[in-house]
Design a protein that fits this description.
Blueprint (H helix, E strand, L loop, with lengths): L1 E2 L5 E2 L7 E9 L3 E8 L4 E9 L7 H13 L10 E5 L2 E7 L6 H8 L6 H20 L2 E2 L8 E3 L5 E3 L6 E2 L4 H5 L13 H4 L8 H16 L9 H10 L15 H10 L10 H5 L2 H4 L4 H8 L6 H19 L3 H17 L5 H10 L5 H6 L6 H12 L33 E3 L4 H10 L26 H4 L11 H9 L5 H9 L2 H11 L9 H6 L4 H5 L2 H8 L6 E5 L2 E4 L24 E3 L19 H14 L4 H39 L9 H67 L1
Antiparallel strand pairs: 1-2, 3-4, 4-5, 5-7, 6-7, 6-12, 8-11, 9-10, 13-14, 14-15
Helix pairs in contact: 3-6, 6-8, 7-14, 13-16, 13-19, 25-26, 25-27, 26-27
Bound molecules: adenosine-5'-triphosphate.
Family: Belongs to the protein kinase superfamily. STE Ser/Thr protein kinase family. STE20 subfamily.
Organism: Macleaya cordata (Five-seeded plume-poppy)
GO molecular function: ATP binding; protein kinase activity; protein serine/threonine kinase activator activity
Length: 739
């Protein structure tokens, strides 16, 4: 015990020596606690890495533990020791009293820090990266959430949960083809399957982190992961070149631009970047960062407040969108982490996500930390993503190299020491690290003692759900609608009138839209709902008939030909028999080319009529003039069906209105004897209404299908007709010439 050379401390691998206090942070696979090391009464941090939730296999975890132990740099968080407690790996670290830059921004600097502060933080981070890269390590998760601050202003890069050794060979090397990290910060080459990556990936993440510190959030952070993936690969790299970035210096912008070059070979090394003018004049963090922390409540209170805020936001979002978001997130992580995703498929899915404000809009990003909240939410929802670690796998054998862990027997063993012995540490040193050789004896602790204070509460206390299942486009779509960071927007949207919704949907579906979405409509008290299903068609046609339209009622237009201006004609009064005699005409579908109106038997369905007509046209057997009545009738029928649908909807709506006004049953003076009768009558009426509604819905589905088919046919016929007319005209011209 006690202090060892070069700042190394000796901590026991006995969990009862640690008293876990408040939770001070959590990530995708770990919860971090402030803790007391009882033998010396020191405040330290214990990161409890849930092995079940871990993406990495045990080898990677061991590597992380070793890496962290071997690190010896003032800007890198190192591990004092680590050991397995039940299904968690405990990593004992120095406590960074002010948490991460991300936390700090969330709590007090939602729009990011000032440039001089950013310069200090980034310079320290870059020193850490330079050290890691020099020693053959890629950090792979550089982001504000992993830049930790001490209350004296010291800045350290933490979290080696995903770090990889650049010098590794074989399996380990291949594992660099594994996607690990957080999409917003990931370099394009990391996201592209097959193309390996190296330490330059950290430089990209470093550039993204610079933007994160400057804006309070990473670029693309409001988009779903798949969209981020696509944008990172396809879009121009983000930078500091928007209006709001005017306040930043040229050298800052230039430094960021150097990091965010898609071609990794053109990115500078950390060593070279440190020489950039932006860092030359950076002040020590003790002078800049320390001031940020004045007047802030203790870290654990901040974390608690943030958790409450996150929970409130989640609750607001409600299921199922939040759940779906979590699924999407976790599936994305699961699929992509395992490097088993199909990029094309992801791209296709990402392209389904509604791009409501595209890159331009994104440039004016005004939302701040929502993604982080969601990322953490989603992250915390993830579980069992990694391979469950079996007793065999956790067979942490000690090895001559010390790279392996001491044999713990099995997982049933409550505590397994992961500390390498002195020799092993020396050998590691020969690989990369500068160390003083004062490592640790391997401590094989098989204490059967249950943890007294120490069991991480978060593992059971928090609602971290297991989410699994394939990536589903519909989820993606829902995801997009419930876009991260758009909670407010969504609330507003939900409050929009049905008409506005209709308009929006019309915009989204600019073509024939297939069957109406009855369940939605049934719950929406709006007449505009069914109309929107064919809004695209309406839109396209309306343009053609704008000339004499004086009033538009749903898909019908009142034309100046046969209506007294200003006189409103209720839709439900449109005569059923024919749309022709009515002042209401289908806005454009009955075109000016209606010449004749000889009826076709009404028993013939539009489908049949159109098939007959189409056959005639395509066979070129019937002159155009003969086709006209058929076409007209086809349209008449279509109109009739539309009218029918409108009527059905009107009657549905009327019923709803009446129900709403009367409270579903006739108003009667309260009489207990009547109650039962009234109730029975009401429920009977309700039942009948429900039956009626389902019948109507079924009919509407059929009619809508037919209508859609008829519309399609109409387009085809129109095209055929045009060409037939063309041919006729040619013929008659030729005939005239011959004469
Ligand atoms: N030594 C420490 N002292 C104080 N707080 C810490 C310490 N280490 C981590 N934290 C806090 O805990 C949070 C989560 O830690 P960490 O990033 O190591 O977990 P993780 O599961 O690996 O996260 P992720 O994979 O999402 O990056 C950090 O963002 C930070 O706020």
């Amino acid at each position: 015990m006690g202090k060892m050379g070069n700042g190394r401390r000796n901590f026991s691998a006995n969990p009862t020596d640690y008293k876990l206090l408040e939770e001070v942070g959590y990530g995708a696979s770990a919860t971090v606690y402030r803790a007391i090391y009882l033998p010396t009464n020191e405040v330290i941090a214990v990161k409890c890495l849930d092995l079940d939730r871990c993406n990495s296999n045990l080898d990677d975890i061991r590597k992380e533990a070793q890496t962290m132990r071997l690190i010896d740099h003032p800007n890198v968080v190192r591990a004092f020791c680590s050991f397995v407690v039940e299904r968690c790996l405990w990593v004992v670290m120095p406590f960074m009293a002010d948490g991460s830059c991300l936390h700090l921004m969330k709590v007090a600097y939602p729009d990011g820090f000032e440039e001089f502060v950013i310069a200090s933080i980034l310079k320290e981070t870059l020193k850490a990266l330079e050290y890691l890269h020099r020693h053959g390590h890629i950090h792979r998760d550089v982001k504000a959430g992993n830049i930790l601050l001490d209350n004296n202003g010291v800045v350290k890069l933490g979290d080696f949960g995903v770090s990889a050794c650049m010098f590794d060979k074989g399996d380990r090397q291949r594992s660099r083809n594994t996607f690990v990290g957080t999409p917003c910060w990931m370099a394009p080459e990391v996201l592209q399957p097959g193309s390996g990556y190296d330490f330059k990936a950290d430089i990209w993440s470093f550039g993204i982190t610079a933007l994160e510190l400057a804006h309070g959030h990473a670029p693309f952070s409001k988009y779903p992961p798949m969209k981020v993936l696509l944008m990172t690969i396809q879009n121009a790299p983000p930078g500091l070149d928007y209006d709001r970035d005017k306040k930043f210096s040229k050298s800052f912008k230039e430094m960021v631009a150097m990091c965010l070059v898609k071609d990794q070979t053109k990115r500078p090394t950390a060593e070279k970047l440190l020489k950039h003018s932006f860092f030359k004049h950076a002040k020590p963090p003790e002078l800049t960062v320390k001031n940020l922390l004045i007047d802030l409540p203790p870290l654990w209170d901040r974390v608690k407040a943030l958790q409450l805020k996150d929970a409130a936001q989640l609750a607001l979002k409600k299921m199922p969108s939040a759940e779906q978001e979590a699924i999407s997130q976790s599936e994305y992580k699961r699929g992509v982490s395992a490097w088993n995703f199909d990029l094309e498929d992801l791209k296709a899915q990402a392209s389904l996500v509604q791009d409501d404000d595209d890159l331009q809009g994104m440039k004016e990003e005004d939302e701040t930390m929502s993604l982080y909240v969601n990322h953490k939410d989603a992250s915390s929802s993830r579980s069992n993503l990694g391979k469950p670690i079996s007793a065999n796998e956790i067979d942490c054998r000690g090895s001559a190299s010390g790279a392996e862990l001491s044999n713990s027997g099995s997982l049933n063993t409550k505590v397994v020491a992961l500390e390498p012995d002195c020799d092993s540490v020396s050998q590691e040193k020969s690989v990369a690290f500068e160390k003083d050789g004062s490592g640790y004896e391997p401590v094989l602790s098989t204490s059967d003692k249950d943890m007294v204070q120490g069991h991480p509460k978060s593992q059971t206390g928090k609602s971290r759900q297991t989410q699994s299942g394939p990536l589903m486009p519909n989820i993606v779509l829902t995801h997009s609608q419930s876009e991260r960071g758009r909670l407010h927007e969504r609330c507003v949207t939900e409050n929009q009138s049905a008409t506005e919704k209709g308009k929006r949907d019309v915009r989204r579906a600019p073509s024939f839209s297939g069957p109406l979405m009855l369940p939605n409509r049934a719950s929406a008290n709006s007449l505009s709902a069914p109309i929107r299903s064919s809004g695209g068609f309406r839109d396209s046609l309306e343009d053609k008939s704008k000339g004499n339209v004086v009033q538009i009622k749903g898909r019908f237009s009142v034309t100046s030909e046969n209506v007294e201006l200003g006189k409103e004609i209720p839709l439900c009064t449109v005569p059923r028999g024919s749309s022709q005699g009515s002042p209401l005409r289908k806005s454009a579908s009955v075109g000016d080319w209606l010449l004749d109106s000889r009826p076709v038997p009404i028993s013939q369905s539009p489908k049949e009529v159109s098939t007959n007509v189409s056959n005639s046209v395509s066979n070129n057997a019937v002159p155009t003039s003969l086709l006209m009545p058929h076409l007209q009738n086809l349209f008449q029928q279509t109109s009739l069906q539309q009218d029918l649908i409108m009527n059905l909807l009107n009657s549905l709506q009327l019923t709803e209105v009446v129900d709403g006004q009367t409270g579903k049953s006739p108003v009667q003076p309260h009489n207990p004897e009547n109650d039962a009768t009234v109730e029975t009558a009401a429920s009977e009426r309700e039942r009948l209404l429900l039956i009626k509604i389902s019948e109507l819905q079924a009919r509407m589905i059929n009619l809508t299908d037919e209508l859609t088919a008829a519309k399609l046919k109409h387009i085809q016929l129109q095209q055929q007709l045009n060409s037939a007319c063309g041919r006729e005209e040619d013929k008659s011209r030729r005939g005239e010439r011959d004469i």
